[in-house]
Design a protein that fits this description.
The protein has a seven-stranded antiparallel sheet. It is α+β, with helices and mostly antiparallel strands and about 140 residues long. It has one domain: 2-Layer Sandwich (Alpha-D-Glucose-1,6-Bisphosphate, Chain A, domain 4). It is built from three helices and seven strands; from the N terminus they run βααββββββα.
Amino acid sequence: MTTSIVKTAFFAADKETVWAFLTDKDKLGEWFYQGDENLSDGAKFTLYGKDDDGNKKKMVWGEVKKWNPFSELVHSFYIAPLEGSNSELRWLLEDVGNGTKLTLEHSGMSVEGEAFNLIMHLDTGWDKHLAALREAAGK
């Protein structure tokens, strides 16, 4: 059995600005993990953090599956704790008032056995990452 995590966040920024923070390698590094290249239609990507010694460490990788600039981005999402199993992120951007509504759906994760603990960790993690994204995009 699989499940999804769905998060919604509002930004005092236009869709173009929020989109840039989802796809630009340097802006991704301000709130999530740094990339070697910008995300683009059909592109494979890898995002990096740092290990305890400050060395570059592969954190997230995937491939862009759907690319509708400023409105929808879908990509596969692999992280080491998921032991190479594939999940998917879908980012939807909508104009709302003087800003942007962002909906994130993280789907395809197993809830069997110990995997449920990871789901709880990811749920909390997305709250923190989206708060960091809101702060970065609001600068």
